[in-house]
Input
Amino acid sequence: MKTYENQGNKDTRSGFGAGLTELGQTNENVVALCADLIGSLKMDDFKKNHPERFYQVGIAEANMIGLAAGLTIGGKIPFTGTFANFSTGRVYDQIRQSVAYSDKNVKICASHAGLTLGEDGATHQILEDIGLMKMLPGMTVINPCDYNQTKAATIAIAEHHGPVYLRFGRPKVANFTPFDQKFEIGKALHLVDGTDVTIVATGHLVWEALEAVKTLNEKGISAEVINIHTIKPLDAKAIIDSVSKTKCIVTAEEHNHLGGLGESVARVLSQHKPTPQEFIATNDTFGESGTPAQLMEKYGLNANAIVKACEKVIKRK
Amino acid sequence: MATTQQLEDITTQVRRDILRMVHKVNSGHPGGSLGCAEFFVTLYNEIMDRKDGFDMDGIGEDLFFLSNGHISPVYYSVLARTGYFPVNELNTFRLINSRLQGHPTTHEDLPGVRIASGSLGQGMSVALGAAQAKKLNGDNHLVYSLHGDGELQEGQNWEAIMYAAGNKVDNIISTIDLNGQQIDGSTDTVLPLGSLRDKFEAFGWTVVDIEEGNNVDAILKGMAEAKSLTGKGKPVCVLLKTVMGNGVDFMMHTHAWHGKAPNDEQLAEGLSQNPETLGDY
Ligand SMILES: Cc1ncc(C[n+]2csc(CCOP(=O)(O)OP(=O)(O)O)c2C)c(N)n1
Ligand SMILES: [Mg+2]
Output
């Protein structure tokens, strides 16, 4: 079985910052906007290197989205940066009308997504953003799993024409994917081959899925792991192919079970290959203050929870 | 009525609470909290007409809404020290399963809090709604609200500011914490606010300046004036000039401590500048 090594904990938002820095050097049409969170979004380098292509908009996210839409008219490729909550819910209609419906080439880059934002608590911990964004026609939704992948995704979305929602997080987590990977939007990555159960995970939950596999193996269960960094468009074929073999599936995400990855997977499977499925996701609740690890434990979003879900879904075959 | 000395002593204790709360969990927002300590202490002890206990509707008493929810440490400290919940509970700030969330919420039923805040720019609309409910209820008490200066960059504020004057909501006193700082630097470098007096007046508000927003006597005087200006057909705005991080010398006049907790030595230094008065929790 293929194993993955943690090259050292790093935050995915720093992967975004590094990707943006590189884009600054390679693509002169890339511009960046931020709403009073430059340090949190790791946009300092881009700002320093390209002050003329960087826009500090103040605490005014709605204006930021509109400005970004406008900047595309004239060929710029705007990357907006703020927390996931203020990148989505706060500005939903601005994104809907000025970006998605108008088909503007805006990259909405969102940090501090999900529970792992930690102590700031529920007002900042959005668990509904994947749903909000995937419902918008034409929107691409990406939730990379580690630093290296977030950097690669940041670079890749500049080449893709059309609105993109790029979701990443605050805490330092395992960095385990290749540093030189090429990121292909919409292409699921097979991480581990297995025969008894398929685990389809996104974002921070991918590493948890790999941890879960170790425990499952000890219990004699062979699990297949798919890293589904792109939630929309969803790589339906990869999922269908895998469950054709394993006959059951667990989806794992740092998001509400309503509207998230799990529901997208369930829609595909119910149409093409009805399959027993368990959901690792929050259960229609807001988050709260706490350390990331405490919260992931309390809300059932870690390796342990994935193991239990796998055992449960296998019995349902 | 409390003496100046008594209010200052409470403020010193509140500063200790703020420092100890954010230090314990190595997160939270000391800068804005410290800058508004005198204001909160004065508001809750002297200015607001409050009932004993807490009920959500707050009929027959003045109400307060914190729009810039990140300064929850000062809010929680003052709520606890004016009897809304046990002072000891400050120990649970930002911990899992606590009522003292990083940003104030009603979700855990913390007495004293009537609306969630944290996502900036929403509090004035809520305060205006509550002020209009008071009018419908024939309740002639006032609604107070507090907003950051950086927070005013959010457009919703200006929708609310226009609405308040257009609808003659004259039972509200909205205070702006004019510390000139936000996360990425000074408000002037991030996005200049211009003259807030001119802006509020142009929108039809009456404006009161409190030049020394960290002086309890100046706050008492300014807020009394603001109160006297309510009920005259116009909403009232107080421009409270404060020093971010006030009372802890190395935290003052900078945005650096907006959302950063002191380490052990810095905590000790900050506490030594603010000796215990009412007793630590
Ligand atoms: C809608 C929204 N956008 C961004 C943030 C992140 N944020 C929290 S506090 C803050 C700066 C607020 O500045 P100010 O109101 O002046 O408060 P101060 O720093 O003076 O305490 C920002 C940008 C937020 N909480 N809500
Ligand atoms: Mg400020």
Summary: Chain A has two domains: 10-173, 189-311. Residues B 148-150, 177, 179, 181-182 surround magnesium ion (ligand 2) (CB under 6 Å). The CA atoms of residues 19 and 57 of chain A lie 21 Å apart. The first helix of chain A runs from residue 12 to 26.
